[in-house]
Amino acid sequence: MTTSIEDSGLLDDLVPAIEKKTGYRLKKVAVGTGQALALAEKGEVDALFVNSPKAERKVLSGGAVINRHLVMHNDFVIVGRDADKAKIRGKKNAVKHSV
Fold first, then answer.
1. SS (H, E, C) 47-82
2. Other residues' Cβ atoms within 10 Å of the Cβ of residue 12
């Protein structure tokens, strides 16, 4: 998994539930996405939690990874004063409308 997923604490809840259901003992390894995908290409991991769809698809198309599923996504929310001096209220693309 990526370090950001480790930091989120998500697997602190998932791992015990998976171990109980399957009887398998899981070992978590937190590294950057590139390193996690490289471990998969070497056949050194059985499952991945990573966050780079473009890189994931490349490894998937190479056959090192199968059965890819979207588990979560990020939402970015811009907050600010009611005056909205940046004129971004209601915009759908923060980068396109950045000041």
1. CCCCCCHHHHHHHHHCCCCCCCCCCCCCCCCCCCCC
2. 10
